[in-house]
Amino acid sequence: QMTKGLGEHYVIEAPEQVRMRESDSTLTGYRLPSEVEMEFATRAGTVTSRYHGQTDELLPKYACYQSNSSEHTWPVGSLKPNDLGFFDMHGNAWAWCQDTYQIQPAPANQAAQADESGEIDGKTSRVLRGGSWNFNSAFARAVFRYSFHPSVRNINLGFRVVRELRPPSL
Residue 158: beta bridge partners? Predict the structure, then answer.
């Protein structure tokens, strides 16, 4: 069964049970990013803890966090983007990732550990990245990881989507 807005990547089996379809290169649509994709998009080719550098000095120009948020989220694009053109990669709202939370993430040269069942059951913690408006600057770093169960709802949680495209016909 497909549900409008979920694309071809997810199957709804019951009102509270969703599972991810088996990997298939022909699938298109939207999905949550992997933890590795989020870190790549956040770093934007840099090796520093933040895409604009190491220190907190420039952070208010790029991130909505505890010191400059006025205790709420801000519209996307209110601050400067990173070098890939992505806004709010640090702060504003924690972004859900597809990956289940593991104490140690997969090394950069290794694929992230897949969720074998493909089920999103509300009991297995999922990775969150990016920091949020009500956390201090220490959380607004490319490598910082957080986790919650997918059933948690909170004013500082959000998501980004990845669009899968079919390769052009040759």
Answer: 95
